[in-house]
Amino acid sequence: MSIKQFLLRKLMLFFTLSTLISVAMFFLGTALEPDVCFGYSGLLTPLFFAGCCVIPSLVTWSKRELTPRQWLLRELLQFLLTEGVILALAFALPGIDTSRPAVVLGIAGSVLVIYLLVFLLSWAANSAEARRTDRELQAFQRLHSADEL
User: Fold this and answer.
1) CA distance 77 to 38
2) What are the residues whose beta carbons fall under 8 Å from the beta carbon of 105, sequence distance 6 or more?
3) Is the distance from CB of 65 to CB of 86 less than 8 angstroms?
4) Neighbour count for residue 11 (Cβ, 10 Å)
5) CB 90 within 8 A of CB 105
6) Which of 67, 98, 102, 140 places its Cα 20 to 30 Å from the Cα of 131?
7) Hey, what's the torsion of the CAs at 128, 59, 66, 121, to 10 degrees?
8) 96-105 burial by CB neighbour count: b if 16+ within 10 A, else e?
9) Dist. CA 20–CA 117, nearest whole Å
10) What is the C-alpha to C-alpha distance for residues 114 and 120, in angstroms, rounded to an integer?
């Protein structure tokens, strides 16, 4: 994968994460802090968290094809780094009540769910791209095999 494709995928990851983080914040906030309201600056929070989540995804970059084991280890490392970054931010930011175990577990669970959703969305997009490429290759092969007759 070229660096351009890699960066484009990270940009798409950023926007996907921003959306899913907004949804997670809504559900967690409604369940754990239903009376809390925030101002317009709170609208930037999902963007901040999404940007912080994209950084650990850089461990998946490789110039060459990864073996399944290398890929799995990098995915696991990316998940652990993402979980660590988000929990560290949660403990560092004053607006998040990390003294309550339900809040910490809610955040950790949300990171897991969002990670899995992003993984499934990426897999679906990659599968669709692979099917399209396969169809184009088959059409190319049919065209050239017809030329040889």
Assistant:
1) 33
2) none
3) no
4) 11
5) no
6) 67
7) -20
8) beeeeeebbe
9) 9
10) 10
**Radius of gyration, CA atoms only, the chain:** 20
| C-alpha of 45 from chain center | 16
Determine the residue type at 70: Q
**Would you mind telling me the total number of residues written for the chain in this entry?**
149
Written as six digits, the tokens of 123 are 């897999």
- Residue 74 contacts by C-beta under 8 Å, 6 or more apart in sequence? 59, 60, 62, 66
Q: Two tokens at 116?
A: 């899995």
Q: Supply the pLDDT for residue 73.
A: 93
- What is the rounded CA–CA span in Å between residue 141 and residue 149? 13
List the structure tokens of 125.
């997009």
Phi, psi of 35 (to 5 degrees): -90, -5
Q: Are 13 and 118 contacting, i.e. CB atoms less than 8 angstroms apart?
A: yes
Could you tell me the pTM of the whole model? 0.79
Model confidence over 32-60: pLDDT tens digits? Answer: 888 888 788 888 889 999 999 999 888 88
